[in-house]
Amino acid sequence: MTPVISVTGLTRRYRDQVALDDVSVTIGAGSITGLLGRNGAGKTTLLRILAGQEFPSSGSVRIFGLPPAENESVLRRLVLVREDQTYPDINVRHALRAASWFHPNWDSALASSLLDDFGVRANKAVKNLSRGQRSALGITIGLAARAAVTLFDEPYAGLDAVARQIFYDRLLADYADFPRTVLLSTHLIDEAAALFENVVVIDRGRVVLDTAADGLRGMVTTVSGPVLAVDSFTEGRPVWERRTLGSQASVVTVGQVSCEDRERARSLGLDLTPLSLQQLVVRASGWSAGAGYLATRTSA
Amino acid sequence: MNTMIKIARYHLTQPVMFPGLPWATLAFAFAVNVARGGDNFRDGVVVIFTMFFIAGVQRIGRWLPFSLALGATRRSFYAGTALLGVSMSLVSGLVIAGLQAIERATGGWGLSITFFRVPYLLNGPWYATWLTSFVGLSALFVYGMWYGAVYRRWGAPGVLAFIAFQVLVTLAVALPEPGRVWSFLYSWSYVGEHLASLSALDLTGVAAALAVVFLVGGHATIRRAAV
Q1: A134 with A244, same domain?
Q2: Is B64 helix (H, G, I), strand (E, B) or coil?
Q3: What pTM does this model have?
Q4: pLDDT in tens, B125-137
């Protein structure tokens, strides 16, 4: 499979900081990838460079095998929805009309039904929209564009839980009918986790985890119970974190848990809780070495 | 549809700000002039030239980010914006020439007003007025575009540096005695004499040449602007 997005050795330096440090990622056609990491980790910079809005200091970026910057043949098959998008003094209808001229697969019916779902009036000036409505406009453009490469950067700032669910549902429904390559950066990891086929975690400008989401499920487990039993169970397993409180211990361990393991845990009186994606990202961002270990295990 | 044309159309989704605002300002100035019943705002037509400059700044400064989000390249955005400015200058120049003809025919709107006539610059036959105002409006619009591009690329400090740079260049060109800043003050009569030897059409040619310089400079600036 030829990758749709391929990033090699990408570095972006600003005056006193390195926003991206030797990033290499490939993303295949027809997938939804979660781009996760803390604030300031470099997610937005990466997406802006992919969309040709920002320039790399070094390294290469290819989309459909071509550099995206100032390249119309790439850019018309790409859309980037940004949390901090600035608009000129136009109203919602004008913004959508302009978007329809630039995106060859634009679906006007989808755009107006999304606006209805989000409760955004088409004749409202963009500058008078609330934060959530502005996000809804961005999402509407991002979905109705049906661009082969669809990039969402924190698309739902200010949206309530119902509107976010509308976004997830509409994204999945439209993706099923018109598969494309979606890269979605978000802080609400557990909420969006079910969407992701792949996960890329960035921390301080570096990729600390790049793997299939399926491989991650059940890969990291918290074992809790009496100290002696926990220690006996986790012996020989890689341990990320260990906490004890009196005679009780709680240990985060990496590796699939087999049926025999479960049986044994039950007989030892231990609780096994799989780590959610969000907890996993929190730990991966805090402890890069552990994430590296995880990446090698899950890609094997 | 060509991307350049799409960009020009995209700008025209908001015609109230451009070309609406420059013409509304001019109409307001004219109305005030008429209401005061006389010729106390001579050469008022120059107002629209200033407004074209401001429009150029805004069209680049405020419209670039969403244009790139739509998938336009900087190149086509810049070219489409210039196309908008130049075509609006062409139409506006013709309207100015028409209003000037009416002003002449009616003896200054019946009130001896010289609003659409500027001595020496815009005071010839209708086609000369059309040409000079077309070139003048275009040059100021693309000059504004260059400011917008500088702002997008380097922010407010960049704009200040850009202005300082132009002041230095002007001083360097206009200084009859290099190194002596104050000689600049005495040199205006010298510059004035030079300008006086040029006809309005010569000046139009100079403005056209400057417009080309502004266009090239603005393009070089916007090429690496990030949003």
Answers
A1: no
A2: helix
A3: 0.89
A4: 999 999 999 999 9
